[in-house]
Amino acid sequence: MNKAEKIIEILKKDYPEAHCELNHDTPFQLLIATVLSAQTTDRSVNKVTSTLFKQFPDLDSFLKLSQEQIEEKIKKIGLYRNKSKSIYNLCRHLEENFNGQVPKTMDELVKLPGVGRKTASVVLAVAYNIPAFPVDTHVFRITKRIGIAKSNTPDKVSDEVMQKLPRDMWIDAHHILIFHGRQTCLAKNPKCDNCSITKHCNYYKLNNN
């Protein structure tokens, strides 16, 4: 078992309930929520989508909205203008190119407006249980702090970690690292005294000698 596997196995005991915290009922809702979540907390997204998805639960209902109407519905979220444009366009792309269905491959997902590899990976992993390793700010920070990734972009970090973990660990590892980032390995003032993986962590060794 390599370092990355050991770390995930330890953290799995700390966060047995780790899961996606974006509220959704369908792959389409997850796709919209994930687009909305860029540079925004899941909590903020859930506040908006709790009303949004009741009024507009599916693609057909979203297609009736203008870009300006989408803006109005999501304006409490950061970057709402860019996100409303992406959502407006991706809905039409789904209708015109994918029969209204959220695709199940990376290549197809990243063709959707506003959908990068991270968003596509979340949809694959969470909606379809297809092995993928999305890298958000928490995962990016922690994998580099621990020392299981060295790259300087989220996509390259994803590639590095996927090479070190078996495919059947990718999805759980993603969720576990996010929970660890939110609860223990904070961006500022990480709670190293409460951390179960300090003996494996480069950041801890550098800062506690």
Describe it.
- The chain is mostly helical and 209 residues long.
- The protein folds into 2 domains: 91 residues, Endonuclease Iii, domain 2 (Orthogonal Bundle), CATH 1.10.1670; 102 residues, Hypothetical protein, domain 2 (Endonuclease III, domain 1, Orthogonal Bundle), CATH 1.10.340.
- The protein is 59% helix and 0% strand.
- It contains 12 helices and no strands.
- Helix 9 crosses helix 10.
- It is elongated.
- The model has no long low-confidence stretch (mean pLDDT 96).
Our count of domains comes out at 2
Mean pLDDT: 96
Give the CATH level 1 class of the largest domain. Mainly Alpha
Number of strand segments? 0
CATH architecture descriptor name of the largest domain: Orthogonal Bundle
- Count of helix runs: 12
Radius of gyration: 18 Å
Quote the distance from N terminus to C terminus: 27 Å
H/E topology pattern = HHHHHHHHHHHH
Structural class assignment = mainly alpha
Outline of this structure?
By secondary structure, this protein is mostly helical. The chain folds into two domains: 3-18 and 133-207, Endonuclease Iii, domain 2 (Orthogonal Bundle), CATH 1.10.1670; 27-128, Hypothetical protein, domain 2 (Endonuclease III, domain 1).
